[in-house]
Amino acid sequence: MFSLKPCLHNKKSLLALCCVAALYCSTTVAETAENRAQTSAPTSFDNPIIKYDSKDPTNEVGELIYTADPAALVVGDTLYLYSTHDEAVPDGKDYRMYDYRLWTSKDLVSWQNKGAVFRYSDFDWARGDQKTGNAYAHHVIQHKDASGKTKYYFYVAVEGGQTGGQFGFSIGVAVSDKPEGPFKDPRGMPMILLEDTAKYKDHTWRNIDPAVFVDDDGKAYLYWGNQQLWWVELEADLVHLKGESYTVDAQGRMQNRDTSKVKIHAVDTLPNFEEGPHLSKHNGIYYLVYAAGFPESLAYATSSSASGPWKYQGIIMEPLPNTTTIHPALFDFNGQTYLAYHSADLPGGGNYRRSVSLDRVYFNKDGTIKPIVRTSKKQ
To answer: Does the predicted TM-score (pTM) go above 0.70?
Structure first.
């Protein structure tokens, strides 16, 4: 505490002392706020955080729901967590995925179930059937369009839309005025087709797991791939590849697509890259987290640029029980960093019946990521 009595006779001393007192108080308030934020940020979770297809998917017991491939979007004080939806039967041997679900939270502890916000069949060009479904991993971002209006961009991997009707996965985009949709296809055709990556790989599921990152300078990048990482710069509208030319029909759908001036970059420096790239920036460092090897572990690399080059930093999560896949989303919320991923920890879980989980991310002083400590209510 400060006493002003000795300084009452000296105005300069009084002024100086008041300034010190004000600085002390403001610093104390700032430190208290920081400590409160640290204290209120959860360090463990009732994983999997998505359990039931109920209003409160963590705590309100209902029918089990299996979810995967989380995508995290922070809007104001709310986290919008999008997931795919595994509907395989208990002894299923293939993915059966038709829609994308949305879950929201303001504290990462209490969640709300917003239901299905998009389906693979919302793309006129997508294909699926009752056996498998084809709503694969996705990514959602918020960005202002040329008029300054905030839009939400939903990037997905679905089967269909290939030249000549051949089988294979494509990457498409849909846009909405609200984070919960409805989302509409602005192109009328995929962004990425088999022909765009044919010179690198030949398996038909190579174009999956899209992730988009908009840098501080406004440049936007699309990352994707299975057994190969690719990236391409996007136009400012976030729905066309940089350099892509085309015409449109009477309904506004793209025709005569020409990618001869599009530069697709292949990255070959990431050890055991399998799929699931996710790019984010924390304290000035770019982090590329991805699924490595098979069964998949979680690895990452860092860079001083969104375009690399990338420095491999190692494994932060080993393969998980009962599932060969893992899919990361690294994000900041309320001053802390978190990792969303999928496990197979619900009763009846497995390779095709997965569950979204969440855990804290901690950094070393040099910016490297400490191994992720998985948590659950039992702990």
So the answer is: yes
